[in-house]
Amino acid sequence: MRIIISPAKKMNIDSDSLGIRGVPRFLPEAQKIKQCLQRMPLHKLQALWRCNDAIAKLNYQRLQGMDLEKNLTPAILSYEGIQYQYMAPGVFEDGQLEFLQQHLRILSGFYGMLCPLDGIVPYRLEMQAKLMVEGKKNLYAYWGDRLANQLSQETDFVLNLASKEYSKGVTPHLFHKTHVLNCTFGEEKEGKVVEKGTMCKMARGEMVRFLAENKITHVAGIKSFDRLGYTFSEKHSTENHLIFIKGGE
After folding, report:
1. Of all helices (H) and strands (E), which one includes residue 90?
2. Distance CA 119, CA 135 (A)
3. Angle between helices 27-38 and 53-64 (to 10 degrees)
4. What does the pLDDT look like over 67-76, one tens digit per residue?
């Protein structure tokens, strides 16, 4: 099994808490993206990043001296979004970290796909950013089927906890033999399942922690997730899509 998740915009530098295990598999491709970004003026980068002046200046400064092989932070500690706060990787035990190193993959517009203990640097680049690299019209075209091919070589079962922005860069290209299991965390209102962005991020982080704590790699175990008030809903789910309802039975 491989679990895929999204990255987060806000990033941290922490080279002391955990040691890295290596560099990202797609580092050469990330180097090309970095060079492309470094050639862009600040105003175009700000438009690409869709951020305020302060965030644009911070990331512009990061780009100027960016070295993808120095002062690295393990990927799982580098991201600071809500999903990662609820995953709480800083307090994982060694066995749980080993489980995630084997089974968890973080998707990234900049790095492509990361193992939790790959060493990375702070960057700002969403997968849906309209950046042309090596003649490709955007990052989806640039990455193509590379990420999916790597995943399909690693496993025939992918648990998709990533947002649509990131998962659509991978799941359509997976080998036909690869079983993709999607998860939705929502509330039932007037017979429909309604998702709320913040709660979804919280639940995805909790799900990763739940899987790591219990060493779960099978569908029955995934269905037993019961945190943040969510429970598996048999009536709403299908073979390829598990629905967890908040306050459900």
Report:
1. none
2. 28
3. 120
4. 999 999 999 9
CA distance 196 to 246: 11
Residue 215 backbone zone (phi > 0: left; psi -120 to 50: alpha; other: beta): left
What residues have CB less than 8 Å from 15, skipping those under 6 apart? Answer: 71, 72, 73
As a whole number of angstroms, the distance between CA 82 and CA 85 comes to 5
**How many helices and strands (H and E) does the chain possess?**
11, 10
The whole-angstrom separation of Cα 225 and Cα 236 is 15
C-alpha count within 13 angstroms, C-beta hemisphere, residue 2 = 28
- Across the chain, what does the average pLDDT equal? 96
The Cα–Cα gap between 2 and 150 comes to: 11
Structure tokens that stand for 101 in this block? 């190193």
Residue with tokens 């309209």: 130
pLDDT at 17: 87
Q: Token digits for 115?
A: 């193992």
Dihedral (Cα; 98, 102, 103, 105), 10-degree rounding: 110
pLDDT at res. 191: 79
Tokens (6 digits) for 166: 């990131």
Report CA torsion sign: 87, 90, 94, 98.
Answer: positive
Decide: residue 17, CB within 10 A, 0-12 exposed, 13-18 middle, 19+ buried.
exposed
Question: 178-190: per-residue pLDDT in tens?
Answer: 999 999 999 988 8
- pLDDT level of residue 248 (50, 70, 90 thresholds): low
Q: Give which of 125, 141, 106 is closest to 30, Cα–Cα.
A: 125
